[in-house]
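debug: dumping io for the single-chain case to check the tokenizer round-trip. Nothing else runs in this session.
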Amino acid sequence: MDSLLIANRGEIAVRIIRSARELGLRTIAVYSELDRDSLHVELADEAWNIGPAPATQSYLNVARIIEVARQAKADAIHPGYGFLAENAGFASQVAEAGMIFVGPPPEAIASMGDKITSRRAVEAAGVAGVPGTLQPVDSLAAAQTVAEQFGFPVAIKAAHGGGGKGLRVVPSPAQLEAGWEGARREADAYFGNPEVYVEKYLERPRHLEAQILFDHHGNGVFLGDRDCSTQRRHQKLLEEAPAPGLDPDLRKRLGQAALAVGEACGYRNAGTVEFLLDREGNLYFLEMNTRLQVEHTVTEMVLGIDLVRAQLEIAAGKPLDIEEVNSHGHAIQLRINAEDPGRDFFPSPGTIVDYREPAGPGVRIDSGVRAGSVVSQYYDNLIAKLVVWGADRSQAIDRAKRALGEFIITGVATTIPAHRRLLSNPSFLAASHHTRLVEDELDFSDLDPVAAPAAAEEEETQERQATVEVGGRRFVVRMWLPEVELPETAGQAPTRRRRRPRLERASSGVDAGLVTAPMQGTIVKVMVKAGDRVHRDQTLCVLEAMKMENSIKAPIEGEVVDLRVATGDSVAQGAVIAIVR
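debug: decoded output
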């Protein structure tokens, strides 16, 4: 293996490029038109445009990525840990194209990617799953029957998903229909399949992970555990390794179960097996992520192992050379997302104005941005991962607090204030935290809202072509240059290319009944129609942006006198959605 194409973007691509270059590999980046000036594009040895900003037209465009890989003469493709990383079809097409897929076999991806199939496989291997259905639940009536069997609360989950997407917790029968519809809608949007299943919702469990590696020579190794219990909206916020407070017997059982899951599906390369630990000490299989996790950094910090390098070496056919796993100290990763904690972690897309990373002993930053980078509504809102190491958990927490104080990001709201508060929470400090800690014990409503900088008028660019010679070889170069005023001609005033018309926006916040889009996104559901009476805080529609669904609510009680959106509409930030009188 001499060259590697990274089929991903941002922090993920930057992370992989760095390990690949240390191995002497030629690195090939791909980018959407929106990411043309991104850091991962700059760091790679070469970069290729794969399409427009929407992921479906670029980072999820399998045919285009394979085409670019052939043109760039890539030996291997690393999918990163998002987008196509758990797409069995993509893995198959990479192999069919004569290239190495840096990941598990397609059969293992398919087996573990279907959550129902995976539950059957692991239970056959002697690993217990959370009590639930072992087949898709195909109607609301069937979901009602199953929910009554297990007892509320229940969780409705995407059969082909993971990472908290396509998951709805239903506390009572009154919320079942909304949970059922929401889970199916999100499952279809993110995973292309609306199938869901139902399982018993464990209240206040811990979320534990096991990192495993398998090579092509029959060797498998358990690389320790992580605690990922600190979440909001079922999305991880903070992770740490090793998981605090686990007794040696439980840690051993966790590792044995994880390896059994890997063996059951014929796994190769790096993978993560996730478990829930209930308050009675019962350990349940949750799902397997057939890829490297975002939080792999904390395992690297305590073991001194480069997991991306290990992935590349396994893919190249090398046997594992890890004879003994020794963990040292404690590591914590904090996800610095473009979200506003004071507004229930509402996404905050925009342009980063100032960006200054912390440094010092035990501090690592994995990021793909810099000052001037745009956090787009088209992609995940992760800005950076702040990773700290300490000799013990207490020192790691102290270092995290110090590093957060040095981390400066302006222009968008971030989770930094939430992390500061979280690291001082008594339950977290006592390692008695659970998956509901953020919602149950922490209140961020008093945090001052972050004022976004005044939106600058978009500068139009125009594609141009130029013919150049490099070393005597002729090239046609495409360029995107700002539009400029055309020269005056006799009797004419200066002209400029006309800008695209803008969508109507709210002119002021004086009208209390004016409902506007808080960000650019897509309307995925409309709950009301013109003429309906609504109460204050009633959900009018659901806006999907930055991989999150956000409820747009009525600001006052009254009648919906004007409704300007329908399901499927794309809206700009500030666009008028409805008027309530």
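debug: round-trip ok. The first strand starts at residue 3 and ends at 6.
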